[in-house]
């Protein structure tokens, strides 16, 4: 049954590519993100989970809004720190955001050593993601994101999530907590093709989110 379900998902993905639906959805997601950033003002708060080297973090910081960016990969965090140095409204957190706190292994791309600047985009807390290896793994801190939001006690205008498979457990916990009502928009990249075991949980999250007024979730990010 699992093999059949995966074949169906891959066929649906291929059809979306062939018809151009995937490309249109991605363009629409980027346009929606740009519009959300354009609407930010000083005093607003945006949070970037999986900031990587800060391309989108910097765009949000330019708005004048307060920015909190989480990035667990030490190599990416160094590049992020350099990029965001001119922006005092950006707070950088050298940790992952997750559904629970602790110290965990961060698995890097199997070819990480050949091109670390580029390969940090694949770094993940999920050991069985298809393109990573334990050979370059590092231990990182993970922050309980729901507890972090409770302590922060602020409305969040925009939340970007690109955390390579860990988004499922985080969103399951987040959407079950009242603090989610304080978030305006979420832009999330999902990874059910790289991690097929997350497909049913991702689909369940989409059904759950469809019945909520807030946050508004865009599932086609990146």
Question: What features would you highlight for this structure?
Answer:
6-stranded parallel sheet, alpha/beta, 222 residues, 8 helices, Rossmann fold, single chain, 3-stranded mixed sheet
Write structural notes for this entry.
By secondary structure, the protein is an alpha/beta fold. It has a domain at 24-98 and 145-218: Rossmann fold, CATH 3.40.50. The protein has helices at residues 2-19, 21-38, 55-61, 74-84, 116-119, 145-152, 167-175, 199-210; strands at residues 45-49, 66-70, 90-93, 96-98, 102-109, 132-144, 156-161, 183-188, 216-218. Strands 3-2-1-7-8-9 form a six-stranded parallel beta sheet, with helices on one face. Strand 1, helix 3 (55-61) and strand 2 form a beta-alpha-beta unit. The longest helix is centred in the first third of the chain and has 18 residues, at 2-19. It starts with a helix and ends with a strand. The relative contact order is 0.15.
Question: Topology, pairings included?
Answer:
Blueprint: H1 2-19, H2 21-38, E1 45-49, H3 55-61, E2 66-70, H4 74-84, E3 90-93, E4 96-98, E5 102-109, H5 116-119, E6 132-144, H6 145-152, E7 156-161, H7 167-175, E8 183-188, H8 199-210, E9 216-218
Parallel strand pairs: 1-2, 1-7, 2-3, 4-6, 7-8, 8-9
Antiparallel strand pairs: 5-6
Helix pairs in contact: 7-8
Would you summarize the structure shown here?
By secondary structure, the chain is of the alpha/beta class. It has helices spanning 2-19, 21-38, 55-61, 74-84, 116-119, 145-152, 167-175, 199-210, and strands spanning 45-49, 66-70, 90-93, 96-98, 102-109, 132-144, 156-161, 183-188, 216-218. Helix 3 links the parallel strand 1 and strand 2 (66-70).
């Amino acid at each position: 049954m699992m093999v059949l379900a995966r074949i169906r998902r891959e066929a649906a993905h291929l059809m979306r590519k062939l018809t151009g639906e995937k490309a249109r959805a991605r363009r629409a997601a980027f346009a929606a993100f740009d519009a959300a950033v354009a609407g930010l003002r000083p005093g607003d708060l945006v949070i970037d989970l999986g900031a990587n080297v800060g391309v989108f973090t910097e765009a949000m910081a330019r708005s004048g809004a307060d920015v909190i960016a989480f990035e667990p990969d030490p190599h990416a965090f160094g590049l992020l720190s350099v990029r965001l140095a001119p922006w005092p409204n950006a707070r950088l957190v050298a940790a992952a955001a997750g559904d629970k706190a602790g110290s965990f292994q961060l698995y890097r791309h199997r070819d990480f050593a050949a091109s670390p600047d580029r390969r940090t985009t694949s770094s993940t807390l999920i050991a069985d993601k298809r393109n990573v290896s334990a050979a370059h793994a590092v231990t990182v801190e993970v922050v309980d994101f729901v507890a972090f939001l409770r302590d922060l006690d602020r409305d969040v205008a925009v939340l970007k999530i690109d955390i390579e498979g860990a988004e499922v457990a985080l969103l399951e916990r987040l959407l079950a907590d009242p603090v989610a009502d304080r978030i305006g928009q979420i832009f999330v990249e999902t990874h059910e093709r790289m991690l097929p075991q997350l497909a049913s949980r991702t689909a369940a999250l989409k059904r759950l989110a469809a019945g909520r007024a807030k946050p508004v979730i865009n599932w086609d990010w990146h």
